[in-house]
Design a protein that fits this description.
- The structure is a single chain.
- By secondary structure, the protein is an alpha+beta fold.
- The strands form two sheets. The protein has a three-stranded antiparallel beta sheet.
- A hairpin with a 2-residue loop joins β1 and β2.
Length: 170
């Protein structure tokens, strides 16, 4: 093992592993403590830097090209972290990306009032919050990704004591 890469840490301090932060926290409203996995800060900063880099591209491109690139990035990141306690991180990623796209639209159309831009890029959505849409491509909302943490597997978990797994004696 490499001395530079190997460290021993207490579970209360936590550690980063494969872009996840693994740490024990007290569950809200109880005195019980559980081990939680959630996206690490370097991983979150990396995806935010990528969103920023994509959204700073040339404004000569169309909005659907920008949304396609951002959707590809966010879907992959959200699917990787959907088995952890990542709802707050996914909410923030959606919020940050929405603002970056909005700034990109405002930079592309400097002299158009925001109400016209909202009407133009809102699509068929009704309500206070809208997600940019152009030519059938809609900005992906990572906050809508279903978090699936502890799936019950029941009897499907193999173990050495089951009757099927015991070797024949004799």
């Amino acid at each position: 093992m490499s001395q530079a890469k190997t460290s021993i840490a207490h579970i209360d301090e936590g550690f980063d592993f494969l872009s996840f932060r693994i740490q024990r926290h007290r569950k809200r409203g109880t005195d019980k403590q559980y081990v939680y996995t959630y996206p690490s800060k370097p991983s979150m900063q990396a995806v935010l830097r990528k969103v920023k880099a994509i959204s700073r591209q040339n404004i000569g491109h169309s909005l659907d090209e920008l949304l396609t690139q951002l959707n590809w990035l966010m879907k992959g990141w959200a699917n990787y972290f959907r088995h952890s306690a990542a709802s707050a991180s996914l909410n923030y990623l959606g919020y940050y990306t929405w603002h970056r796209v909005w700034r990109w639209i405002r930079r592309k159309h400097r002299r158009v009032p925001w109400k016209q831009l909202k009407r133009r890029y809102q699509g068929n959505q009704v309500g206070a919050t809208w997600w940019p849409e152009h030519d059938g491509v809609r900005l992906f909302n990572p906050a809508k990704v279903e978090i699936v943490r502890y799936r019950y597997r029941g009897a499907r978990i193999p173990n050495p004591w089951s009757e099927r797994a015991q070797p024949a004696i004799g």
